[in-house]
Design a protein that fits this description.
Elements: H1 2-49, H2 66-99
């Protein structure tokens, strides 16, 4: 009788632990989905900013470094956002297999 109660309690605790892990996994996956969508949005915005140049910048001045700095920073932003996107997608694909054994 006592052994049956102990076994039942162990089963109930293991079931609750699995439910909690599943809820954590769902929250984790949802958060990574938000991060991935924001990274894709910001990468697209940075890519669009490569085509924008203010009219007040003198285009014929050889000492004009605004365009070069703007394009370099946009390229860095695009690469970091794409890296974030790739890491979050990779984690979303392979994370569930590691979370719930």
């Amino acid at each position: 009788m006592i052994q049956a109660n102990v076994s039942s309690t162990h089963t109930m605790v293991n079931q609750r632990a699995t439910e909690i892990r599943f809820k954590e996994l769902t929250l984790f996956t949802d958060n990574l989905g938000v991060i991935a969508s924001l990274a894709a949005f910001f990468a697209e915005t940075s890519l669009d900013s490569l085509y924008i140049e203010p009219e007040t910048v003198a285009k014929d001045n050889p000492k004009n470094m605004f365009s070069t700095v703007c394009w370099a920073l946009s390229a860095v932003t695009i690469s970091l956002n794409l890296l974030t996107l790739l890491v979050s997608i990779y984690t979303m694909l392979h994370g569930p297999a590691l979370a719930i054994p």
